[in-house]
Amino acid sequence: MTDEPMTATRAWAASQIRQAKAAQGFTWNDLADAIGRSVIWTTSALLGQQSLQSEQAAKIIELLGLGEDVKVALLLPAIRGAQAVDRTEPLVYRLDEIVQVYGPTISELVAENFGDGIMSAIDFELDFARVPDPKGDRVVLTLNGKFLPYRVW
User: Fold this and answer.
1) In which band, very low, low, confident or very high, does the pLDDT at 104 lie, cut at 50, 70 and 90?
2) Less Cβ around it within 10 Å: N or C end of the chain?
């Protein structure tokens, strides 16, 4: 692939994985199957936002024919949040817009139905589906997080 930077990073490893995946015709589902995890979690992990176990990283680099330097980078601490995301990427921008428009509504409805608290992003699952529609296929995202009440002391 490309030359290794002075210090391998999770972002660099993600670029190596994307290149190898495309060159060899693998899908994110193929990589998820290889490590026995969901496609959403695996994709997130290989893009740097989840922590991999050594065995999982080893399976990925073996499958893709990548070097130990990629494995080392995959085992670095995950980098989560806005600093790891290109907010100008069109789909990410639209998701951000959805939160800006509907975030206050969701917050109000969670408070009304659950009480004063938040939805966990740690005890969390995401599902993705394509739903056929005569006007154009639909993207269905299901955000499933544990309710965490604010603690009173």
Assistant:
1) confident
2) C
